[in-house]
Design goal:
The protein is α/β, with parallel strands linked by helices. The chain has two domains: 102 residues, Ribosomal protein L30/S12 (60s Ribosomal Protein L30, Chain: A, 2-Layer Sandwich), CATH 3.30.1330; 154 residues, SPOUT methyltransferase, trefoil knot domain (Alpha/beta knot, 3-Layer(aba) Sandwich). The chain contains twelve helices and twelve strands. The strands form two sheets. The chain has a seven-stranded parallel β-sheet with strand order 8-7-6-11-9-12-10, with helices on both faces. α8 links the parallel β7 and β8. α7 packs parallel to α12. The chain is elongated and about 60 Å long. The chain starts with a strand and ends with a helix.
């Protein structure tokens, strides 16, 4: 068991990275350029370590110390800091509801070709801006057995704190990567034998319930950003257009909800 060092004021240099990592600054200054991300909550921290991510340090309130101490995955040498709930919120710039944070080292991303080499069901995310939606889709992907997720260059970061939190750490168990060239990625996925299917509220699209009954073995579901949806170029380059039937007066679902419905439908 490692020793917990008390943090009593905002100026303590031992936790300077935490007070720099406010929501506003998180991606722009330190993530992912410095190769780190924040895991929030003892369970999420443990899932990150179980997936092989290295903790740089942990910061927790007294209530949560025993859970981290009980983890066989947290190296004894990892610096451990303890702070009160109010100070923790001041340090980080947000309310830490689960009482524990860890700075983790990122790992190099694999190439798209390596990621999809043995996959059957994959998900492509085009320019989603909301980290909560990315995290929720990662959780759906894990729940419904998706083999891989590819995100566009402009998509929200799957390892952003809120995305990781919403995913409940499942972002660490679903293989994923970032595309360098989105249009080329679609071509690459098709060349690898996948049928690309775009989710859209277009009335002319096929009912996903019907399409799923004869779906091919290798399917890539493509989801677009909140509001505008998929770009016209992406829609035109997909093999199929799929819609989720809805009651009159409702034209679409939140993208994360749509992903859950679509991925469930493909299990049939």
């Amino acid at each position: 068991m490692g020793d917990w060092l008390a943090i009593n004021d905002l100026g303590d240099e031992r936790v300077s990275l935490y007070w720099q990592l406010t929501d506003v600054q998180l991606r722009a200054q330190l993530e992912p350029e410095h190769g780190i991300f924040v895991a929030e909550g003892a369970k999420v921290i443990e899932r990150a370590m179980d997936a092989g991510y290295e903790p740089i340090s942990v910061l927790a309130t007294e209530k949560w110390l025993h859970l981290l101490d009980d983890s066989a995955l947290l190296p004894v040498s990892t610096p451990r800091f303890c702070a009160g709930e109010d100070l923790l919120e001041e340090l980080t710039g947000f309310r830490v509801h689960r009482g524990a944070l860890a700075l983790m080292r990122r790992r190099p991303l694999v190439s798209v070709s390596e990621l999809i080499a043995s996959a059957q069901r994959i998900v492509l995310l085009e320019d989603l801006k909301e980290h909560t939606n990315v995290g929720a889709i990662m959780r759906c992907a894990a729940a419904f057995g998706v083999d891989a997720v590819i995100v566009s260059p402009a998509c929200a970061d799957p390892l952003y704190r809120r995305a990781v939190k919403v995913s409940m750490g499942t972002v660490f168990q679903v293989p994923w990567t970032v595309s360098d060239d989105w249009s080329q990625t679609l071509t690459q996925v098709c060349s690898a034998g996948f049928t690309t299917a775009a989710l859209t509220p277009d009335a002319q699209a096929q009912d996903i319930r019907v399409w799923s009954t004869t779906a091919p073995d290798k399917v890539a579901l493509v989801f677009g950003t909140e509001g505008p949806g998929l770009t016209m170029q992406t829609v035109q380059n997909c093999d199929a257009l799929l819609r989720i039937p809805m009651a009159s007066g409702v034209d679409s679902l939140n993208v994360a909800a749509a992903a859950a419905v679509a991925l469930f439908a493909l299990q049939n």
